[in-house]
Every structure is written in structure tokens, then in C-alpha cells.
Amino acid sequence: MMIENDGFLFPNDLHILWKLMIVMYPYVTGLVAGAFILASLYHVFHRNELRPIGRLSLVASLGFLLAAPATLQLHLGHPERGFNIMLTPNPSSAMAMFGFIYAAYLALLVFEIWLVHRVDIIMLASRSRGVQRWFYKVLALGVYDVSEEARHVDHGVLVVLAALGIPGAALLHGYVGFIFGAVKANPWWSTPLMPIIFLCSAIVSGIAMVVILYQVGVKFSGRRIDAACMQSLARWLWLFVIISVTLELLEIMTLAYEAADEWQIIKPLLVDQLAFSFIGIQLIFGALIPIILLGIVVLMSRYLTDQIRNTLCFVASLMLLVQVFAMRWNVVIGGQIFSKSLRGFRETYFPGLFDKEGIVLAILILVFPLVFIALFNRVLPVFEPLDAGNAESLKP
Amino acid sequence: MEHAKHIIRAVLLLVVAVVVFVLVRHFLYPKSFGLHGYYRFDSVAEYASAAPVHGDRGSCAACHEEKAATLTRGKHASVSCEVCHAPLSTHVQEEARVAPMPVDRSMQLCATCHQKLVARPKGFPQVVLPDHAVEKGAQITNGVCQECHNAHNPSE
Questions:
Q1: Which residues pair with B33 in a beta bridge?
Q2: Which residue segment(s) compose the domain that B36 sits in?
Q3: Distance between CA atoms of B103 and B81, rounded to whole angstroms?
């Protein structure tokens, strides 16, 4: 492919180095943080109407968390060197902190999922036989206490963990935003608002993803979609998409009003170079339309049948998942197609199908968590808890 | 505490995981890391003792004297042989030819220096390569530039 450029470029600005996998990285970690914060609304803030997705969102969060490092591994290559980030991290590099933030968050998430499913684990240990029974007994760590007191302890620890998890999720994703926000040479990235914008859009994508997983999962398991839960999800989604889009626009309005040097390049970047992915997808298709659809669900709830509510939420969520992806794309790729001269553009980038940072691998990274959730569901239920009943009498 | 036995076990498990990590890190931590800066100092000696991969024009001239002389006379005098050919060690090892030397004849390679770019000095020969090829009535194929230009001495 020939390189065709436009305007004045520094000779070292000719290549896009942060490609599709660096777009995927904030996208996937955003889904992790968003799903976790949604789960916390139930576990910490006791939004009981969200009970049906309390477990699903935690397990989804874990699935995407496990997929997240693949994006960086594919981008950097040499996966055998990946663990060095834990051995010899450079304390002056923000990027080197990823390993530790990731590990701490993984431990917290696994601990929380274990606590949420503990009673089920014990129930399943008591009901199964042979190897399966041993598997569940090991998962229960050999303690089969499902008394009222033990569950009370579980609940207390769960609240503490989830409460720790909120700053944890904010840190995990705020940190990803910080990586971009701290690049002072790039006016399209360098803003203290970046971590907050990333975090809000992360919550949007997390909730949207759970809406879709919940609706699809419920269909597969032959249950009914809980109307109160869907209504609540729509309300939270609406709130966060409004905050998210407002912040995104606020950032651009500030740049436009200040009209400093960098606006000379950011304006054509947004209205010419990124016209389709920014104005078309991020603002109109992905934000304006879902805000209207969710507005209908939230404001006209009593006129809606369950089916219409579910369909509106489903469609809006799909569009929002595209919106957040477009937002990541516009930040990561948009920030690299103009030269540091602020006077020229290089030709835009489109990923190949089978590249190391190509479309097929990106799709596989997004499919992995779905497979993970399906497999997890075979071991422990991600939907309604089994009837705990007289759990004490079932002690294995 | 009677009913918190499972929590204690889980926390113990976490502590064990952290201890294992600290131990693993202790054994895997490169001994010479950080001696003279944020890198493994032993790697300096390792690289110094590694077999050379690249060579300079002198190495090539040992067998290809005429080509080296043509290159030195022309505008590409400052371009290393290995820019268009592969690293020397793919072709010669221990002073013996081991494989034919590959040549990159692609238009992309020429474009690295000669694609029209406002950022380049005015006097530097630069064209919009596909347009230039079409203007001269050439088909855009691998090696199209060499049909008219001698890569060893472009002014010939």
C-alpha cells in the first residue's frame, strides 16, 4: 500500500503504530469495569431490582478480564516476555503498572464471584458424585458452612469486596484513560478529562453488554426477562450515556472555544478525516439514537409492553456497544493520523482481516468471554441461584 | 470467627499466592538487573559476544568489488547494501556463501525515500510513485522502478 499524505508531516509521523489491538484494549477493559460497576449497584448499593444480573455481570466481567491481556500480547508480540512486566516493572512508567493493577483486580473479582456462588458450590458438592463432587469440594475450600451466620459473614465480606472493587474498576479503567491523557505531545489525547471520559463510556459499554447477554441468556435458558430489572438497566444506561456523551462533547467544545493552535488540526480531524466514525457513528448512530430509544423506555415506561421495552433496550444497547468502540477508535486512531506538526494528515488506517492486529483476532477476543460465560454456566449457574432451602442438611 | 472459616481459608490461599509470586520473582529476577541502570547488565556482554548479523560495505566489497565501486560513485553512496538486500549473515557465514542474497525490488522500498512528501528537502528527488510509473507507461509490478533506474547508481 502506498503512503499518501496530506499537508505537512514530520518524516517520523508516517506510521500508525497503535493499531486495532490498542483500540480493543480500552474497549475490553472498559467492558470489564462497566460490568463490575453494574454488579456493584446490586451488591453494594442494594438495587435489588438488579438481582437477576448480579451474577451474570460479575462473570462477564471476569470473562472479559481474562481476554484483556491478549490485546496487548498481540500488539507487542513476544508473549513469552509478557511476564517480565511483573518481574522488572519500571516504576516511572504508567504502562508497567498494568500487571499489578490487573492481578489485584483479578484476585478481587475471583474472590467476589466465589463468595456469590459459595452456597451453590456447597449444594452442588452435596448433589454430585465422584470426580465432580471432589471438584466442588475443592472449590468450597473444604468448608460447608451455609448457616445464617456464615451467610451473614459472606454478605459483609461481599460488600467490602465490591466496595473495594468500585475504586478498583475505576482505577483499572481510569488508568487506561490516563495512558492516553498523559501523552502531552498529542493535543487530541492530552486532557485530565480523559480517564473520566473513558470510565463513563466504560460503564455505558458494560451495561449495554450485560443487557444483551441477559436477554440472549434468558432466551437460551427458557426463563422470562425480568421487567423491573430491564427497566432499571435502561435507566442506568440512559444516565451514563448522557453523562458520557456530554463529557465527550464538553471536551470538544472547550477545544473549539479556546481555538488554540491544536484546534487547527482537531477541527479537520473531526469533520473531515473522522467524519464517518465520529459524527456518523459516535455522535448520531451510537449516541443520539440510543438516547432517544432509552428515553422512550425511561420516560414512557407505563405505555410500553415488555416486548417493546426489551426490544428498545436491546437495539439501543447494540448501538451503544458500537458507539463506545467508535469512541475508542476515534481516540486511538484519530490521535495518530495527524502529524505532531499539527499541519498535516497521514493516510488513515484500516486493519487487515488476518493481521496480527487484524479483524479476525479482534472478533475472537470478543467471542472468548462469551464462550467463558457459557462454560462457567455449566459449572456454576450465572442466573438465578439454586434453591438454598435447607442447605445445612445437605452437608457433604 | 466460627462462621468465618471459609473466609480465613480464602485469605490464606491469597497469601499463599502472593508468597509464591514473591518466591518466583526472587528466582526469576535477573541477577545483573539494575546494576548500571534500568536493564540487565549481562545482556551487554551477551550481545557483544553474539555472532554478527550485519556487515558493512567493506564486507560486501570483498566479493562484489565492482558493484561496491558503482555504488560509491553514485547518488546512493550513503545507502547501505543491506537496505535493499538482506543482512549479510543470511548470505555469508564464516566467509562462505550459504544462500543466495535476496533483493527487495518493491516500489514500497523506493517509496521509503522517494515518495513525494512536503517534509523532504526541496532538491531531493521525490515523486508520487504510482503516478510517475503510469506517466512513463510502466505497469506497476514488483521491480518496476528498476526498469529505468539502476539502484546501484541511479544517475547512470
A1: B40
A2: 2-49
A3: 10
- Cα nearest neighbour of A140 on chain B: B6
Is residue B1's pLDDT more than 80?
A: no
Measured in degrees and rounded to the nearest 5, phi and psi for residue A143 equal: -115, 125
Task: List Cβ neighbours of A252 (8 Å cut-off, separation of 6 or more).
Answer: A266, A270
Domain boundary residue, one of B34, B49, B64 = B49
- Residues B97 and B108 both lie in one domain: no
Closest CA to A51 of A313, A237, A310, A226: A226
Report pLDDT digits (tens) over A180-231.
Answer: 999 998 999 999 999 999 999 999 999 999 999 999 999 888 888 999 999 9
Residue A332, pLDDT above cutoff 60: yes
* Residues B120 and B146 occupy one common structural domain: yes
Considering the domain architecture, whether residues B56 and B44 belong to the same structural domain is answered as no
Instruction: Write the pLDDT tens digit of every residue in A237-258.
Output: 999 999 999 999 999 999 999 9
**Helical residues (DSSP H) of A128-147, grouped into ranges:** 130-139
SS3 B154: coil
**B38: Cα separation from own chain's centroid:** 23
Contact of A152 with chain B, judged by CB distance below 8 Å, is answered with: yes
Element (H, E) at A287: none
Are B92 and B113 within one domain?
no
Segment holding B107, helix H or strand E = helix B107-114
Tally C-beta pairs within 8 A across A and B: 66
CATH number at residue B74: 1.10.287
Cα A152 to Cα A162: distance, rounded to the nearest angstrom:
15
CA within 13 Å, CB half, A266: 21
Does residue B44 share a domain with residue B13?
A: yes
B76 and B123 in a common domain: no
pLDDT band at A4 (very low <50, low <70, confident <90, very high): low
Beta bridge partners of B97: B92
Report whether pLDDT(A3) > 80.
no
Q: Do B56 and B84 fall into the same domain?
A: yes
Residue A240 near residue A211, CB atoms below 8 Å: no
Query: Are B26 and B68 found together in one domain?
Result: no
- Please state the ipTM of this predicted complex: 0.82
Q: Assign 3-class secondary structure to A240-262.
A: HHHHHHHHHHHHHHHHHHHCCCC
Question: Does residue A347 sit at the B interface (CB-CB below 8 Å)?
Answer: no
- How far is B25 from chain A, CA to nearest CA, in Å? 6
Q: How many domains does chain B have?
A: 3
**pLDDT grade, residue A5 (50/70/90)?**
low
